[in-house]
Amino acid sequence: MKTHFLRKHKIAVTRFYHALPLRKYNTELAQRVRRRLMKNQDKLFTFLDYDNVPWNNNNAEHAVKSFADLRDVIGGRTTQSGIQYYLILLSIYQTCVYREIDFLGFLRGEKKIYGYSASRAVNPYERG
């Protein structure tokens, strides 16, 4: 998302944060949400000020899922070196996913992601 498209929303965000401390909330839940919003005021709408900053947390949540799956498989016990090896393998896997490269095919023989993707590139003028 580009800043110049999102700039118009900064006025609404400013109004919201000016009104937030003035409102009275009766429930404990609403008061906690207000405190949390005020505490994180400088972080929540960062995507309005910078280009290509996601407004949601999907990438981070997606990355954490792999660790949760690993924890479930190994029963919560591992070593630092085990985690380091897993991180290396996970980063290769994620790179393959984002570049639409077959992960197992990559592991079977190619040494570089760029070489693998270039060697498997499809020529749109060839018939296959």
Structural commentary:
This protein is mostly helical. The chain has 2 domains: 3-48; 58-119. Helix content is 61%, strand content 0%. The relative contact order is 0.07.
- The number of helical runs is 8
Molecular shape: elongated
Note the main sheet: none
Question: What structural class do you assign from the helix and strand content?
Answer: mainly alpha
Structural domain count: 2
Helix content: 55-70%
Number of strands: 0
Helix-strand sequence: HHHHHHHH
State the end-to-end CA separation.
37 Å
Q: Assembly type of the shown chains? A: single chain
* Residue runs with pLDDT of under 50 for 5 or more positions: 121-128
Question: Please, what is the average pLDDT?
Answer: 79
Strand percentage: under 5%
Radius of gyration: 23 Å
